[in-house]
Each structure stands twice: as C-alpha cells, then as structure tokens.
Amino acid sequence: MDNIQADGLLLGPTLVTLEAESGYGLIENGALAWRDGVLTHVGQRDELPEDFIESFDVVLETAGLVTPGLIDCHTHVVFAGNRAAEFEMRLQGRSYEEIARAGGGIVSSVRAVRAASPEVLLAESLPRVRALMADGLTTLEIKSGYGLDLDNERKMLQVARTIGEVCGISVRTTYLAAHALPPEYQGRADEYIDQVIAWMPILQAEGLIDAVDAFCEGIGFSPEQTRRLFSAARALGLPVKLHADQLSDLNGAAIAAEFGGLSADHIEYTSAASVQAMREAGTVAVLLPGAFHVLRETKLPPIAELREAGVPMAVSTDCNPGTSPLLSLRQAMQLACTHFRLTPEEALRGASIEAARALGLSDRGRLRVGMRADFALWRAQHPAELCYWLGGELCQAVYAGGTRI
Ligand code: NIG
Ligand code: FE
Q: Are 241 and 264 in contact, with CB atoms under 8 Å apart?
C-alpha cells in the first residue's frame, strides 16, 4: 500500500460514508477512488465497469472499514514540558482552579513554552501529533495560548504551521492569546486584552491566524473582555470560537453565538437559553470529554437540549498538558459515548463532518465524490467498534489528500 500517491482505488472495504444527515451511510463491498487528492468514486464494487478499474495504476484489495479521516477541531497540542505534577496535586485534593490561582496551570505551561526554542517546541509536539495521526487523524486544529506575548504566540503558531507541512495533514491555527493573564499583566487584564487585540492583525498579516478563541471564565477573561476581542476579530474578518461555560455559566456559548461563532467549546454549564442562541446562529457545540474525564467533572453538557434543538455536536480531544493529555481522537469518541451518552454514530460524526463544520470547512468530513481524499482504514467490521475499544491498534492506514501519511 505504501506506493499509493496521487490516485488510487480501494476495492472491498465497508465504506462509512456519512453521506446523509443521519445514519452511517454504509456501503458494503465498496469501491473508493481518488485522483489528484479528491474522491472521484464512492460506491459499490459490483457496479464498477471493468475499464474503470483498469484505468488505475494502483488497485488495492482490502477488507475492514473506511471512514472519513478524523478531524480534531480543538487542541492545544503545541506545548513544552508537561503537568504530571499538577495531576498528582489534584489527586492529593487540590482543584484545577486553586492550582491556576497559585501560579500553576496554564501559566506554568507559559513559562515552559517561553523558554523553549522553536526547534524544541516542534520536537516535543510532533510525537503527540503522530499519536493522533496513528488513530486516524487527517485535519488538526492547533491553538496558541501558552506564549501570551507577541513573539511567543507567533512561535507557537509557526510551529503549528510547520507541523502541517512535516506531517502532511491539514492544520488550522487558532489565536488564543486570551487564554490566561500573563504574570507581567497581573491586575491589568483590560490592558492585556488591548495588547491581544493589537497583536492580532500583525499575526494575521503573517498568515498565522485562521480563527480567534478566548477562555471566558472566572480564571480566564470576562464576557466584556471576550466581546471586545471578538469585535476586533470580526472587524478583521476572522471567525471566532470560545472556551465557553466550562467551569461556570457566564453565558459564553451565547456570546459565541452573538458573534456568529464557529463553535462554543466545553459548554458543561451552558443554559437552555444559550443553546437556543447557538441554534439560531448555527454555532457548533464542541464536546470535550477528555477534560471532563480528567477533571472528574460531574456537570454534563446539555446533550438532550442540543439534540432537541438540532445543534451540531462535534467531539474533540482538547489535547493539552493540563486538563486533557489525550492523544487519540478515537479515545475521545469513546469517552463521549461513555460520559455524555452520545451514540457511536454521533461520536463519529462529531469527529468528522461536524468537526469540519466547527472549523468552517466544507470540503471534508464525509466520503463523497468531490471531497478531499482524506480517509482512514480500520481493522473493524462495524463503525461502533471505533467507540467500543479502549486503546488498541485499530487503524491500518491513513490517507490525506490521497497520499498515505
Ligand atoms: O481547554 N480551559 C482552558 N484551556 C484548556 C486547558 C489548558 C491548560 O490547562 O493548559 C482547556 O481545558
Ligand atoms: Fe481547550
């Protein structure tokens, strides 16, 4: 299989197309063809004319499942060091918020990122990205937010772009300088937001920002500060998304909706009124069961209300050194099923087509002619197995833009 590059044909697998708005869209004994990075045929093997098969240089017989390449739409995967010591502290009874207020938490990762050269930051981040790829990933969102000054935010975003080039996956970068207050701005949060706003067009002009995010929370930034940042982002034509209502309800999801946000993420404490605002704005709910699990959160996101309102639900790893050191999107799908009671079908859609929507991408996330040839091959008979196994090596091969990665 290693010799497939720009075009090819897979014969025999079960295709999980996610073609319609619901259902797996299964095609048994399928045929999947691509040319120049785009899917050119998605259907049943039996329907293929002989001369169609002959037109491909490379034809592969394979069993198992083929799904769209997985899309992780919320990560902080670029960081230095780790926070295993805080994990131990939490097990000794300290809370995430307590640790953050005592100068640990996000700010301790800021110290590590500021001290790391771009080379070290890349070298430490790459194995995490490769772990995600080994479980079916083809598109990855990466946030800044551990630099918290112009040069270090730039360093993070440049490393994120380099990861895309080195790994052959699509990387979308999100500017999250409003993640925490850096120590040098203690007591001056409004001034810091002014700076965050001032850096934004500079980094945008360097091609480093695809979207803008903030941490709207008691230990993060206020709704007013978030609105100020979002107004500036909107003036620059940048889409927004928000760490919303993770630890308390500050109407964060409604603020994301107010600015036509791509997504509101976490949303454990989101109210029914905010769910309606999301529905009206078309804002995606990004569920992050890894952080829920690691923080031993007990407040569930309003899943029933989201379903009822028809708000699209995405699932992501939130891979970060503090609350979610999670290196498999398939594992995030598993956690979404066990903790949030998503169905395996919702979880798979959440890590593919709905995650694409959360990134504003319409060219991926399902197996359909004309879409990118991003797909993963699994050693499995039924898609529910992707959410059923904890760990293990299910993924056989991953193709991004028609190239095996
Ligand atoms: O998504 N909530 C804020 N940001 C991250 C945690 C980052 C950290 O603790 O380093 C999150 O959970
Ligand atoms: Fe996050």
A: yes
